[in-house]
Design a protein that fits this description.
The protein is 19% helix and 22% strand. It contains 16 helices and 30 strands. Helix 15 packs antiparallel against helix 16. It starts with 24 loop residues before the first helix and ends in a 7-residue tail after the last helix.
């Protein structure tokens, strides 16, 4: 990024949070002209780092105006930069010792391991007008999420707040195509010889097909089988996770491999498709176990995030694209945000000790793992597959939900180990502020209760002083737009709740917590002590049966898995599929009289309901395995208009007119709840108009 010059009339060093816009028209015109010239520069920028560093160079190959050159108030126009960063790490440095197989990676003449990652930056063209904070979005499978999950509907909230958005590749199994952000990591070898080991791939399809990607996603690679592995591989099928595996004849299936090439570079892993004679049956779990070779050193993805953020925050080298005209870095703070898989990556980054750089400095000042549930991930293992996850029906046995689940230290009653996600960060003195946000679906699909209970599910655990937890009641894993949608793959229409306004308020609270120590709003999540966190079974949950609605008979419940003697210490699996041991106990938010959840942070549309908003949904028979949980989805069950309608339907819930008498009282209660959330800082004043509009969209329900 070209240097941002100090604006006329500015004296002294640049301020962290940007400055007020000058009122002189000529000054504004001059700045706009300078910004346009800066944005139009598209010459590739090669930025070598002169000092020995973990990040050795950044090469920016694309520069363009963001959002058509729109100006965001005092922050001015933004620009988007795209390029690549190159890294070198010392395998012997204490900060790198948790990277699995790093010692087996090829080394350069200096004895360091090299790797690279795609980088994207969206920042004010005039960096002195930024807020001074990096907002690092851990991309999800190569694609950023923060603009859709946080800013959508908020008039580009993150830009108006002046954040410097940074993204980088951290996943090596993605097939490069110029669109996804990809990590280029080396392959581990043992004395020059290929390393082999058992791997497991699971496939579940929702419609009939003759072939499917072995990775479960057409844009992802898979580990190449050895010659023996392909010959002796075992494919099985079963309808449900606990059903007995049935072997599929070797003669009825084959593997087709290819290595996609992008810009003359071959993908690190091949694209492998499983072709099955007679085709795949929807909903059935197909599992392939085979011997593979050439594991990539995937843990370097976290090292790359660490070193990129550290470089942008601290380096005064001219290669730093975030330097101010004074020569100081524009970024004084760094916040990490991740959605789902990416939120689990943030938890893993903390657990594996990557919030301290090689010089011992704190990397992220605050993190917001969003909808991560109780999981970590398959991110830093031999033959790691970071895009895999665990839910009740599919992908259940991947190493994503395993101890430790909570941020503070506690003892695992099954393994006997004592551990906590923040243990290494606390020992190094680099604990960040943590705002753990989640939908209530995470309790059903992602073992979220284990974040704040002991492993027996018998008692609440105290949160560390740096941690807050916010559970958005009556919501599902991904936010909707507030409007109900037709039923599709589940027994119920999808849950439409839009919790983005809550995230925006909490991002602002996170920023204030770091900058000036202002405490964020109190945690809001269900607890055993309050009676709002309860067993999930219908008889104990408080659920009132509804006509035509089947309540779940299953839930995602992680177990202690035996992957062989080398897994815990070395993260190397030798038993596939793993042996399933005793399960951890998971709990869910309890239900009130209208079957909406208790003990959570509630939006007005949940607290003042016109429907029951479930955090679970069941698979429809059209996609197979009916009655199993529909992965990560919730549901929507409208309240009926009046007493006659609900009596005829045998619906025990009060009707709309019995509750509110009419739309006017509903609107009054709805807006009162919204104002209450603003007062408590769970909602921003600027989001009230959109919240208000949501209520008027429901007026027709009372007619």
């Amino acid at each position: 990024m070209a240097q941002a010059h100090r604006r006329p009339g500015t004296q002294g060093p640049e301020k962290e949070g940007g400055e007020e816009m000058r009122s002189l028209t000529s000054g504004r015109r001059a700045r706009r002209c300078a910004a346009k010239l800066l944005l139009l520069a598209v010459v590739p920028f090669f930025a070598p780092v002169t000092a020995v560093a973990e990040l050795t160079r950044i090469e920016l190959t694309k520069r363009e105006p963001w959002s058509g050159g729109r100006e965001f108030g005092e922050r001015g126009a933004y620009q988007r930069l795209r390029g690549k960063a190159w890294f070198e790490v010392d395998p012997g440095a204490p900060a790198n010792r948790t990277v699995v197989d790093l010692a087996l990676a090829p080394k350069n003449k200096a004895g360091r391991v090299e790797f690279a990652a795609d980088v994207e930056i969206i920042a004010p063209a005039d960096l002195s007008r930024s807020s001074g904070a990096i907002f690092y979005d851990v991309n999800n499978r190569g694609h950023p999420t923060c603009l859709g999950t946080i800013s959508s509907g908020g008039d580009q909230f993150l830009m108006r707040e002046g954040f410097i958005l940074v993204f980088s590749g951290w996943i090596a199994e993605l097939l490069p195509d110029g669109k996804k952000l990809v990590l280029e990591a080396p392959v581990a070898r043992d004395g020059g010889k290929a390393i082999s080991g058992l791997v497991r791939a699971e496939i579940v399809v929702s419609q009939e097909t003759a072939r499917s990607s072995l990775s479960g996603n057409s844009g992802h690679g898979s580990y190449e089988p050895t010659a023996r592995g392909e010959k002796e591989a075992i494919l099985t099928r079963r309808l449900r996770e606990k059903d007995a595996r049935v072997v599929v004849a070797r003669s009825s299936w084959k593997l087709e491999k290819s290595w996609p090439v992008f810009q003359d570079a071959k993908s690190a892993l091949p694209k492998i498709e499983l072709v099955l004679e007679g085709g795949f049956e929807p909903g059935v779990i197909y599992e392939l176990v085979y011997e593979a070779k050439n594991p990539v050193v995937q843990g370097l993805g976290m090292a790359g995030i660490r070193d990129l953020i550290s470089y942008l925050k601290h380096s005064r080298d001219r290669g730093n694209p975030l330097l101010l005209a004074s020569g100081s870095p524009a970024a004084r703070y760094a916040y990490g945000f991740g959605t789902s898989q990416s939120g689990r990556l943030l938890r893993m980054l903390l657990y594996d000790g990557f919030n301290a750089d090689e010089k011992g400095r704190k990397v992220f000042d605050a993190v917001m793992p969003h909808v991560a549930g109780g999981g970590l991930g398959f991110f830093n293992h031999r033959f790691a597959s970071p895009t895999r996850y665990s839910t009740q029906h599919e992908s259940h046995l991947y190493p994503t939900d395993y101890f430790p689940f909570s941020y503070g230290e506690q003892k695992d009653h099954l393994s006997g180990r004592t551990d906590g996600i923040l243990r290494r960060a606390r020992a190094a003195g680099v604990v960040p502020r943590v705002l753990h946000t989640q939908s209530s679906s995470e309790y059903w699909h992602r073992s979220a209760s284990l974040v704040h209970t002991d492993t027996t599910g018998g008692k609440d655990v105290a949160l560390p002083s740096e941690v807050r937890i916010y559970t958005f009641g009556g919501s599902q894993h991904g936010p909707g737009n507030g409007m109900p949608r037709p039923r599709s793959r589940g027994q119920l229409p999808s849950n439409p709740i839009n919790f983005r306004p809550l995230l925006r308020a909490l991002v602002k609270a996170m920023d204030a917590w770091v900058r000036d120590g202002t405490e964020p709003p109190p945690s809001a999540y269900p607890t055993i002590a309050s009676g709002s966190l309860v067993p999930w079974e219908a008889a104990e949950s408080g659920w009132t049966p509804l006509p035509g609605v089947a309540y779940p008979k299953v839930i995602q419940q992680p177990a202690l898995l035996d992957r062989g003697p080398h897994f815990t210490a070395e993260r190397r699996t030798t038993v596939q599929p793993p042996r399933v041991g005793a399960a951890y106990k998971v709990l869910v938010p309890g239900y009130g009289s209208d079957n909406n959840e208790k003990g959570c942070l509630l939006l007005p549309s949940v607290a003042v309901p016109v429907a029951t908003l479930t955090s679970w949904n069941l698979r429809d028979k059209s996609i197979g395995a009916p009655g199993e949980l529909l992965s990560l989805q919730g549901g929507h069950i409208p309240l009926l208009r009046d007493r006659n309608a609900r009596t005829a339907a045998k619906d025990p819930r009060l009707s709309l007119l019995e509750r509110y008498r009419g739309f006017e009282l509903y609107l009054e209660q709805y807006l009162a709840w919204a104002r209450k959330l603003v007062k408590e800082r769970y909602l921003l004043e600027e989001d009230l108009p959109s919240i208000d509009k949501g209520s008027w969209d429901r007026e027709k329900l009372f007619e």
